[in-house]
């Protein structure tokens, strides 16, 4: 079987290429008839498209040649003259290869493969885009439009789609006629893939399957739920999720075909052309053609008042049949439900117009739903396309450059690029970007790794600048909340390799990108939130990296950037950071600007922030409106401070901020008078600059409790000074260190019953034993806060769970594993179990057994828990309640009471806004330090006094002896030197030991307040090590020399 062309309907003027006077008295073909005279090849008829006017027909051959037949009173056949027409199909001299055709009532149009657009025929309404003659009798180029890919004809109008995605309209439109093509501006950022036209209405389909319609709408042919004419395109919202792949327009009705093979129709329906089984003058809402449910429609076409569809090679038709256009074999007034056209069995494509229908039969049936004729679309980029260009043996750089220029100079093309090849390309929405970001990533990586990457990058930036970024108010015509397709490119752009080089393209690339993101946040905050939170880690991280790189550039060049641009960038980063807190996309340190301490005085920044009212300022009052982009820094409502963006601060910077906050609070507290009781004179007030604590070593706990109970809140805010009763040491830091060291050693002893140590992890936790009152735990909380407040590291062996709870973070199974490893790993095994037999394998219920002083106590995790088995469905709840009971509540909620008392005590002392900037592990390191030792850095940081220098024999002997010590001995040396074996959060670089000479007969002495070491002047390494080891065994007590 070869391809065969059939026609039926009105043919009195030769529309089918035959004279019907001897075939049909009515001038009609009521049933399909094979047509001859059309172009053929070895496979049969070689027709790829047929366009029908009211009384003429245009055919496109597979070889790109154009043919025409029928009436020609307006020159619509394109044969250089207006005459009585032709009953024979003749070629139209075009001089170029044609890729697509269309026909209006009395005019025709064609698109060539080089992007030229030609129109001819009636021109009284300027449908040929020319003023003057009423008819154009041969193809005339529309010079205003280049690089055309599609054209559609209304009755007396034209619609064109460019390679750039731009849509033009001209001719007669809503009672106005104009010859100069006008841009349909809404589509400047929406990727249109198909256009269609009715008598006086137009429809466009986008890459994501959205449908827009505009024009005459008295019968609801625009599908917008009303019958009001629309001068501008409106979204047919009821089709948003239907995956539309093709639309066809009749005179005053429209039919949409979905990827799933369903038909939706709307508009004029007096003759049943909507196929809904009823007649009505107007149907403004898309209606499913329910008679075809269960069938997969592959092609659809509309005539003036009839519709034809293809299902598994069979043609079904409905609507007006007065001229036989339904092909049923008879002339009837109307058919209101789809009827099968007999004698056609393997139809692959179908075309209709006015009162004619054409069908092509072929050996194989097409089972894909798509437009009837192949259509070119605007330039869209993909990895496969770029790889093809890069691997082309001709290595034609002009082709590569041309492709990139076409895509990146048009927001519509950029938004249509990197589309999925499956159903994910449809229904762009808050839950679906409808863009393959991995394909985007690989494509931009190909560009970045190209030998001419810098040149290609420059070309892309220039194109973006002139096209995508040219109009700052990108959402003024189409809000992203209505159609998110307008802003898809914002999710793709971070993968462009030049995005992380703001030093090259700050003003031309980075800042326009940031401002567009901020516009999206303004116009569609929920869309941005859903898109960013739904990104895979690699894409989320890339967005963070781009913004972080930009911020670093802004900080490096403060005099070259607008402060408002800095604020916009940081606000977007803050938004990303908050999303990351909720969705845990990347580690928080990806937001850290590690160079901040070097490039900004964070302590001074804090003091300004704390004193100029910024600390109390509502960040939501900062003007972030689109119109404020041009605001000068002086117009901002508050000064700029880095403290407003704490996510930028790494642990070291946060510690510096906390220290600055403490110093500021200490200064303020020191100015306030203290109240004390003076014997015989009663109450008196006086200025005391420090919080003085004097204790006896033998009664350190009791004495400290007594002092804290009688202290005022203002006292806690002052610098702490400690004195051991009967000792002459003046506290410059070292006595304070020893005070906390000894105090916590005592408090953690079992005799107090406050804390219990896990024998496996050696971490301690609240005992849960009702043996100590809440005051004791409040006391410990205050002590911990005092240590942090006064920048003293303490030996406080609590796991990270404590710091999570202090900062309001949720506990996870990892916290239980850290404290009780075996117990926690059992819970992890429950979580990780893959089979659907949790109840049988684990045999658990919502009742657990807790060891209390050697006795097992059963505790229900929720009411009736002993009778509720743990299953696959409820195991997550079980784990959550288990962790909560073990770490936060305890038996009888005793741990909860102890924990709350501790937390209240801690917060009563630490009235800190900065504390909440910390991550749990950072707060842990701030309190207890860390053991990230780098002994080479320790040596490099050491300073020498007097006759000592790095090459001195005594110094050489010291370091030789030191590096012979094992790790535990070195840690003891740190304890000897500075009162703690752990190092500050900033690491070894924050430690500076000062070594000064003393006579050779002495032993080393440490002045812990200054990290000062008195080192005897001896050059014998063995003797030096001996004396060091002797000192390390006696680390309590402090001596001033």
Structure commentary:
With 1041 residues, the protein is an alpha+beta fold. The protein folds into four domains: 4-361, 7 Propeller (Methylamine Dehydrogenase, Chain H); 383-591, no CATH class; 749-773 and 780-929, Hect, E3 ligase catalytic domain (2-Layer Sandwich), CATH 3.30.2160.10; 931-1033, Hect, E3 ligase catalytic fold (2-Layer Sandwich). 31% of the residues lie in helices and 24% in strands. The chain has 28 helices and 42 strands. It is elongated and about 130 Å long. This is HECT domain-containing protein.
CATH superfamily of the largest domain: Regulator of chromosome condensation 1/beta-lactamase-inhibitor protein II
What is the average per-residue confidence, as pLDDT, rounded to a whole number? 90
Strand content: 15-25%
Instruction: Please give the order of strands in the largest beta sheet.
Output: 2-1-30-29
Helix share, percent: 25-40%
What name is given to the CATH topology of the largest domain? Methylamine Dehydrogenase, Chain H
Q: What is the distance, rounded to the nearest whole angstrom, between the alpha carbons of the first and last residues?
A: 111 Å
Name of the level-1 CATH class of the largest domain: Mainly Beta
* CA gyration radius, whole angstroms: 41 Å
Quickly give the structural class: alpha+beta
Shape designation:
elongated
Question: How many DSSP H or I helices?
Answer: 28
Ranges where pLDDT stays below 50 over 5 or more residues in a row are 621-636, 676-686, 1037-1041
- Number of separate structural domains: 4
Count the E strands: 42
At CATH's second level, what is the architecture of the largest domain?
7 Propeller
Protein name: HECT domain-containing protein
RCC repeats: 3-63, 64-114, 115-164, 165-208, 209-260, 261-313, 313-363
InterPro entries: HECT_dom (IPR000569), Hect_E3_ubiquitin_ligase (IPR035983), RCC1-like_dom (IPR058923), RCC1/BLIP-II (IPR009091), Reg_chr_condens (IPR000408), Ub-ligase/GTPase-reg (IPR051709)
Pfam families: HECT, WD40_RLD
């Amino acid at each position: 079987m070869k391809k065969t062309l059939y026609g039926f309907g009105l043919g009195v003027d030769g529309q089918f290429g035959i004279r019907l006077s001897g075939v049909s008295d009515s001038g009609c073909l009521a049933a399909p008839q094979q047509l001859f005279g059309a172009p053929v090849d070895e496979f049969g008829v070689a027709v790829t498209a047929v366009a029908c006017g009211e009384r003429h027909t245009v055919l496109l051959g597979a070889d790109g040649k154009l043919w025409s037949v029928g009436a020609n009173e307006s020159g619509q056949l394109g044969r250089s003259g207006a005459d009585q027409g032709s009953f024979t199909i003749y070629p139209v001299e075009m001089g170029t290869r044609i890729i697509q055709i269309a026909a209006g009532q009395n005019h025709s149009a064609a698109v060539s493969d080089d992007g030229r657009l030609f129109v001819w025929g009636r021109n009284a309404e300027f449908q040929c885009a020319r003023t003057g003659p009423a008819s154009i009798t041969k193809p005339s180029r529309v010079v205003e439009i280049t690089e055309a890919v599609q054209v559609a004809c209304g009755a007396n109008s034209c619609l064109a789609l460019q390679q750039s995605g731009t849509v033009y309209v001209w001719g007669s439109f809503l009672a106005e006629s104009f010859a100069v093509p006008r841009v349909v501006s809404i589509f400047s950022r929406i990727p249109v893939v198909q256009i269609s036209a009715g008598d006086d209405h137009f429809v466009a389909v986008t890459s994501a399957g959205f449908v827009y319609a505009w024009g005459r709408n008295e019968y609801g042919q625009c599908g917008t739920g009303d019958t009001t004419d629309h001068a501008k395109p409106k979204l047919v919202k009821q089709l948003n999720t239907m995956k539309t792949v093709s639309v066809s327009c009749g005179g005053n009705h429209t039919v949409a075909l979905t990827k799933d093979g369903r038909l939706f129709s709307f508009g004029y329906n007096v003759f049943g052309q909507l196929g809904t089984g009823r007649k009505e003058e107007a149907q403004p809402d898309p209606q499913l053609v329910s008679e075809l449910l269960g069938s997969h429609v592959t092609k659809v076409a509309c005539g003036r008042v009839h519709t034809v569809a293809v299902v598994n090679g069979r043609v079904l038709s409905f609507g007006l049949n007065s001229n036989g256009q339904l092909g049923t074999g008879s002339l009837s007034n109307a058919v209101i439900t789809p009827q099968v056209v007999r004698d056609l069995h393997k139809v692959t494509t179908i075309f209709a117009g006015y009162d004619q229908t054409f069908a092509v039969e072929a050996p194989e049936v097409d089972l894909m739903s798509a437009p009837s004729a192949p259509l070119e679309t605007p330039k869209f980029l993909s990895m496969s396309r770029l790889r093809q260009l890069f691997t082309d043996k001709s290595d034609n750089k002009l082709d590569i450059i041309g492709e990139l220029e076409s895509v990146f100079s048009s927001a519509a093309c950029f938004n249509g690029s990197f589309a999925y090849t499956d159903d994910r390309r449809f229904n762009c929405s808050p839950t679906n970007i409808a863009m393959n970001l991995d394909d985007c990533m690989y494509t931009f990586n190909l560009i970045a790794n190209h030998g001419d990457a810098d040149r290609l990058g420059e070309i892309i930036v220039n194109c973006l600048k002139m096209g995508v970024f040219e109009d700052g108010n990108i959402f003024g015509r189409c809000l992203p909340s209505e159609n998110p397709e307008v802003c898809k490119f914002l999710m793709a752009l971070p993968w462009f390799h030049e995005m992380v080089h703001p030093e090259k393209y700050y003003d031309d690339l980075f800042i326009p990108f940031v401002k567009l993101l901020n516009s999206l946040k303004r116009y569609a905050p929920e869309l941005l939130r859903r898109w960013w939170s739904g990104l895979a880690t690699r894409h989320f991280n890339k967005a963070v990296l781009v913004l972080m790189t930009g911020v670093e550039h802004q900080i490096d060049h403060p005099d070259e950037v607008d402060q408002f641009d800095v604020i916009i960038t940081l606000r977007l980063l803050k938004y990303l950071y908050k999303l990351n807190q909720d969705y845990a996309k990347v580690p928080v340190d990806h937001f850290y600007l590690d160079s901040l301490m070097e490039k900004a005085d964070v302590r001074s920044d804090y003091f300004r922030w704390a004193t100029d009212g910024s600390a109390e300022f509502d960040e939501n009052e900062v003007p972030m409106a689109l119109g404020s982009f041009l605001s000068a820094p002086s117009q901002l409502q508050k000064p700029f401070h880095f403290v407003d963006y704490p996510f930028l601060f790494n642990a070291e910077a946060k510690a510096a901020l906390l220290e600055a906050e403490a110093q500021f609070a200490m200064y303020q507290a020191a100015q306030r008078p203290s109240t004390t009781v003076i014997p015989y004179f009663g109450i008196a007030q006086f200025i005391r600059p420090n919080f003085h604590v004097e204790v006896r070593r033998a009664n350190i706990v009791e004495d400290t409790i007594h002092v804290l109970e009688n202290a005022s809140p203002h006292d806690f805010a002052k610098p702490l000074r400690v004195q051991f009763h009967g000792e002459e040491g003046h506290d410059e830091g070292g006595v304070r260190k020893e005070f906390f060291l000894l105090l916590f050693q005592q408090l953690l002893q079992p005799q107090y019953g406050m804390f219990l140590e896990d024998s496996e992890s050696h971490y301690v936790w609240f005992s849960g034993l009702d043996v100590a009152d809440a005051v004791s735990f409040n006391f410990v909380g205050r002590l911990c806060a005092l240590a942090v407040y006064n920048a003293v590291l303490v030996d406080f062996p609590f796991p990270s769970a404590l710091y999570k709870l202090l900062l309001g973070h949720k506990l996870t199974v990892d916290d239980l594993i850290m404290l009780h490893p075996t117990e926690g790993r059992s819970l992890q095994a429950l979580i990780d179990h893959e089979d659907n037999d949790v109840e049988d394998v684990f045999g658990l219920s919502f009742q657990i057994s807790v060891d209390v002083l050697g006795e097992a106590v059963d505790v229900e995790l929720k009411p009736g828990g002993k009778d509720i088995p743990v299953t696959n469905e409820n195991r997550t709840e079980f784990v959550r309640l288990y962790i909560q009971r073990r770490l936060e509540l305890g038996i009888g909620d005793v741990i909860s009471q102890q924990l709350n008392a501790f937390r209240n005590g801690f917060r009563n002392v630490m009235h800190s806004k900065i504390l909440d900037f910390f991550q749990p592990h950072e707060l842990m390191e701030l309190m207890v330090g860390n053991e990230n030792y780098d002994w080479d850095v320790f040596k490099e940081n050491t300073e020498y006094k007097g006759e000592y220098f790095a090459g001195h024999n005594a110094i050489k002997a010291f370091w030789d002896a030191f590096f012979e010590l094992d790790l535990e001995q070195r840690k003891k040396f740190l304890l000897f030197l500075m009162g703690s074996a752990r190092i500050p959060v900033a690491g070894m670089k924050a430690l500076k030991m000062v070594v000064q000479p003393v006579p050779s007969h002495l032993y080393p002495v440490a002045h812990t307040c200054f990290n000062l070491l008195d080192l005897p002047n001896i050059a014998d390494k063995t003797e030096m090590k001996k004396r060091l080891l002797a000192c390390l065994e006696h680390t309590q007590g402090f001596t001033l020399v």
